[in-house]
Specification:
heterotrimer; A alpha/beta (about 260); B mainly alpha (about 375); C alpha/beta (about 375); B: about 375 residues; mainly alpha; 13 helices; C: about 375 residues; alpha/beta; Rossmann fold; 2 domains; five-stranded mixed sheet; four-stranded parallel sheet; about 40% helix; globular; transmembrane helix (chain B)
Chain lengths: ~260, ~375, ~375
């Protein structure tokens, strides 16, 4: 399913945190949202998720999500929040997977299908040994995987991730983003992820959207958008971009540029 | 919906069940067994309460009276069916109501120490009763004249309690039903009504004070079949509603505000669950007076037994509430044969060590 | 200030003289008495300014200062105005200035307004013995002692039967009204003696359950009783056996109907008064009694679950009585009403209403008005 944002604005109270964002994410593609702290990245993603009020349209294969009720909308969207502290200490991973699927229902029993999907998800992400454990008994990396599993088990059309790697070590960062990319392609989802790490963004995202003070300043394929001068302008940091084997590019920050408050 | 192709050797026959599902089914079975055991224990406690009563009937007489009331001695029949049963059933129903109210509040307010009194329900009900007893007036004004005398005090207590919670939740709704807001408003209400209650106690003469004291300490002795019917009706109305939202409640417990992501209208759910809790707590308090700890302890017992999944936890909580209050009723009769201790006194005495244990034990496990 | 020790020695020297004095002789001050809480109290001079902690003690003053019972009262807790309006209206009608006496506003739990008490400059504070604990806790007794204001305790609750009369005698002695006190005391004692004789001659004591404040807490509540205070000793003194004392550990409490049924009381007594209270089923005995209302209320209370199973109900021996007698100077009236119900053959000739009228007429100047002491409850059909 392809996602397209049309002149999207997000309000927090009276403050317009994001305005005028128009971009498209094709099915099976990942969009990375970059920018400085306070640029509105998280607000954008939360707005698409339905957690904040928005103006403009969010179209999924043409259908405007903002016109749907919360239950309908949430069925199409998977959201992995920043940090995983919300996860209940007492429910096991399997319980949580069932909950993620059935939470909004007016029912009592767990449909057999949701049991199977939960199990499948455990297999998929290699989380079987954690099935009967609770989030309190896991490492941060495992908890983040569980958070991803909870979003994916609902088979969303749109996957939204807000800094999914900030608490992870090097290996887990790669692992998680590999999973995200693989699933995005396989399931034909439209994935939007907020990332701080420019290298990860350049490596795993098909396109990049850069925000500055709530407005989009650059959008397009990663290689095009992430240039030294653009990074200097938006981040105020002098960087070098190095080409490496296998077509990878490495972005190395050298120094903060004077005259800009960080 | 795009198909998710399974990795690994899993066949196209999705019906094959792996370890995780087997484990899950086993845990469900285990929880069902626990629930059945609890219900049995509850039934046993009810029976024991009926059998013991005030100790004036032999076991044989009780059995005869229960099984063949038509041919039993009329005194035995009256004692069993008119005197003991309303008391026992009231204890059971009130226990269930208070326990459910407690778990709903703990879920909604994200606070394991919440209980029906956190929102000032007990002091509001107490003041409603005081207003009726001491001032002879009702929140309904002259509309209350048609109320039968026996329901006058209870009705006032009930309405006060209900009105309080609705007021608090309406106020909190303006600021988005944040849990801190609701809790703080509840505390404010509690203090306000406690103060008013103190005034009423001060102005009460010795007779009224006597009535008020038994109300404030909790008493099962005013149980009548009418009240049993009313409480049962309220429970029959509310319980299915709760069970149908069991998933959403679990989500609320698991994710708090983040449950919005699952499409749950968190604000609406919090509001409706608080009203349900108010209904339950108010009806119980209006019947037996102010009885604490059941609403606090029963949800914790349930959590220890069956975990946080509200599909089980709700019913187990109800069963625990039934057990606790029925046992308290039993104890209140056994300590002083013939005379009856106020049941609220007993629950407080029994509940306190449990409460302390929960605090001290809970400290060792960090939630996040 | 003379040392208390010296004063006690002086009193001790005088005591033998006092004991020789006949009741008709005037009281000599300073006077040391033992009050009804067992305390030694010294009265330096005849008290003309008195504070009443329990306004119901005005009944005692009515017998001693017959022309003007309120003459000495400078401050009180006007409990009659709140608990016994009928009586208060009569008093106020006969002595209008009573309404002007400052009212501290408390009930009978022993509270007084210490500041008001002291600034009233009383020469004595009269209180009920049951209030002593509260008075001590508030430090009132200490402050009075420091100011040399005697605190005299009377009693009509802890041990109502002998103490009601002794209270009158004690106050009579203290106020130099011994003659008046003696008139009432001899009457009351003579009536009490008649009761004792009759009880001794009567058969075994009937088992009695006395439900105090019946119906006050609502028509489904049951059954509150008193064990060893108030109505408890009254029942015993009237020749009955109070079941409540067997069951209750403390002074008073609630007993289940089931227990009462199992104890098979021969007689069931309900006490009531003209209380205001929505949600209550009242038995408005006393002044301005409405027989019809009483009968209706009693029938309602007799319809409570389990009541029909009582032995007393089956025998038709259920009665109602005015509640106030449990701590009243004229409790001899209550005793007669109870005795008449407990031993009907023995005491067929008793007429409690007449006794009440007689006492008021002979020993006070309180105007007569109809006062209903007690009636039998309507018989439960079937």
């Amino acid at each position: 399913m392809s996602l397209s944002l049309e002149d999207l604005g997000v309000r927090i109270g009276r403050h317009r945190a994001v305005r005028g964002v128009s971009c498209a994410v094709a099915a099976g593609e990942c969009l990375a949202v970059l920018g400085r702290n306070g640029a509105g990245k998280t607000s954008l993603v939360r707005g698409v998720a339905g957690l904040l009020p928005v103006t403009g349209a969010i179209r999924l294969d043409g259908q405007d999500l903002t016109a749907l009720g919360p239950a309908e909308r949430s069925r199409r969207i998977g959201y992995v929040a920043q940090g995983v502290a919300q996860l209940s200490a007492q429910l096991t991973v399997f319980d949580l997977l069932l909950l993620a699927q059935n939470g909004g229902q007016f029912a009592w029993a767990a449909p057999r299908e949701s049991l199977h999907r939960a199990e499948a998800m455990l297999d998929l992400l290699g989380l079987q040994p954690l099935a009967r454990r609770t989030p309190a008994e896991m490492s941060g990396g495992q908890r983040q995987m569980v958070a991803l599993a909870l979003a994916l088990v609902r088979r969303p059309a749109v996957l939204l991730l807000d800094e999914p790697t900030s608490a992870l070590d090097l290996a887990n960062q790669l692992h998680l983003l590999e999973l995200v990319r693989t699933h995005t392609r396989r399931a034909g989802m439209a994935t939007v992820m907020v990332l701080h790490d420019l290298n990860l963004a350049s490596r795993y995202a098909d396109s990049v959207l850069m925000l500055e003070d709530g407005a989009p300043v650059h959008a397009g394929p990663a290689a095009e958008v992430l240039t030294e001068e653009r990074l200097a302008r938006v981040y105020g940091v002098d960087c070098r971009i190095l080409a490496m084997e296998g077509g990878h590019r490495a972005i190395y920050p050298l120094a903060r540029l004077g005259g800009t408050a960080a | 919906m795009p198909q998710l192709r399974l990795a690994g050797a899993a066949a196209a026959a999705v019906m094959e069940e792996g370890v995780a599902i087997r484990d899950y089914r086993r845990s469900v079975t285990w929880r069902a067994v626990l629930l059945a055991a609890l219900l049995l224990a509850g039934a046993a406690a009810l029976l024991a309460d009926l059998v013991v009563g005030s100790g004036t009937l032999s076991l044989r007489e009780v059995i005869d009276g229960l099984l063949s009331p038509g041919t039993a001695d009329p005194t035995v029949r009256v004692v069993l069916w008119e005197l003991r049963m309303p008391i026992t059933f009231t204890a059971a129903l009130a226990g269930i109501a208070l326990a459910l109210a407690g778990t709903l509040m703990q879920t909604v307010l994200n606070n394991p120490l919440a209980e029906p009194f956190t929102l000032g329900i007990s002091s509001a009900a107490g003041f409603g009763a005081a207003m009726a007893i001491v001032f002879g007036s009702s929140i309904l004004g002259s509309a209350a004249d048609w109320l039968p005398a026996e329901l006058f005090i209870s009705a006032n207590a009930f309405l006060f309690a209900l009105a309080t919670v609705i007021l608090v939740t309406l106020l909190a709704r303006r600021t988005g039903m944040g849990v801190e807001t609701v809790t703080l408003l509840g505390i404010a209400v509690h203090f306000a009504f406690s103060a008013l209650l103190a005034v009423a106690q001060y102005m009460a003469d010795v007779n009224q004070l006597q009535s008020l004291v038994f109300w404030l300490l909790g008493s099962l002795l005013k149980a009548t079949w009418t009240k049993v019917a009313i409480n049962a009706a309220i429970l029959a109305l509310v319980l299915p509603l709760l069970l149908s939202r069991a998933w959403a409640l679990t989500a609320l417990r698991g994710f708090g505000d983040g449950a919005v992501v699952l499409g749950i209208r968190v604000e609406r759910l919090r509001f409706s669950m608080l009203v349900a809790a108010a209904l339950l707590a108010a009806s119980a308090t209006a019947t037996i007076g102010v009885v604490g700890f059941v609403g606090l302890v029963a949800p914790h017992m349930a959590r220890l037994l069956v975990g946080e999944d509200q599909r089980f936890s709700l019913i187990v909580t109800a069963a625990c509430g039934l057990l606790v209050l029925t046992l308290a009723s039993l104890v209140s009769k056994l300590i002083l044969p013939g005379a009856v201790l106020p049941v609220g006194m007993v629950t407080s005495l029994l509940g306190l060590p449990v409460f302390l244990a929960q605090i001290l034990h809970g400290r060792r496990r960090v939630a996040h | 200030m003379t040392s208390p020790l010296l004063r006690r020695l002086a009193a001790a020297a005088l005591l033998p003289l006092l004991s020789l004095a006949t009741p008709a002789q005037a009281t000599q001050y300073p006077l040391t008495v033992t009050d009804l809480a067992g305390r030694q109290v010294t009265i330096p001079r005849r008290p003309e300014r008195i504070v009443l902690q329990d306004g119901r003690n005005i009944s005692i003053l009515a017998m001693l200062d017959r022309a003007d019972p309120f003459g000495r009262v400078v401050l009180w807790n006007n409990i009659p105005s709140r608990a016994d309006e009928g009586f208060w209206n009569i008093l106020r009608g006969a002595w209008p200035k009573a309404a002007a006496i400052p009212d501290m506003g408390f009930g009978d739990n022993g509270q007084v307004n210490a500041e008001q008490v002291i600034t009233a400059r009383p020469q004595m504070v009269l209180a009920e013995a049951r209030a002593l604990t509260a008075l001590r806790e508030a430090g009132v007794d200490q402050r009075l002692a420091q100011l040399n204001i005697p605190l005299l305790l009377v009693d009509s609750f802890d041990d109502p039967v002998p103490n009601a009369v002794r209270s009158v005698e004690l106050l009579g002695q203290v106020l130099d009204r011994e003659a008046e006190a003696a008139e009432f005391a001899s009457f009351a004692r003579e009536r009490a003696a008649r009761l004792q004789a009759g009880i001794a001659a009567a058969g075994p004591r009937p088992k009695v359950f006395i439900e105090t404040r019946a119906g006050f807490a609502g028509p489904e509540a049951c059954c509150f009783t008193q064990g060893r205070v108030g109505w408890g000793p009254m029942v015993e003194a009237a020749g009955g056996h109070n079941i409540g004392a067997d069951i209750l550990p403390g002074a008073s409490g609630e007993v289940t109907m089931e227990t009462v049924i199992s104890r098979r009381p021969d007689i069931y007594v309900m006490t009531g008064a003209n209380w205001r209270g929505r949600g209550a089923v009242t038995l408005p005995f006393g002044y301005g009694a409405d027989q019809g209302a009483i009968a209706t209320s009693m029938a309602r209370l007799e319809a409570r679950p389990g009541f029909a199973q009582l032995e007393a109900t089956r025998q038709g021996r259920v009665l109602g009585i005015w509640h106030g007698f449990y701590n009243h100077t004229l409790n001899i009236v209550g005793l007669e009403a109870l005795a008449k119900a407990f031993h009907p053959q023995q005491f067929a000739g008793l007429d409690p209403e007449d006794t009440y009228r007689t006492i008021l007429a002979r020993f006070t100047r309180i105007p007569a008005q109809p006062f209903l002491v007690s009636t039998a409850a309507p018989r439960v059909g079937g």
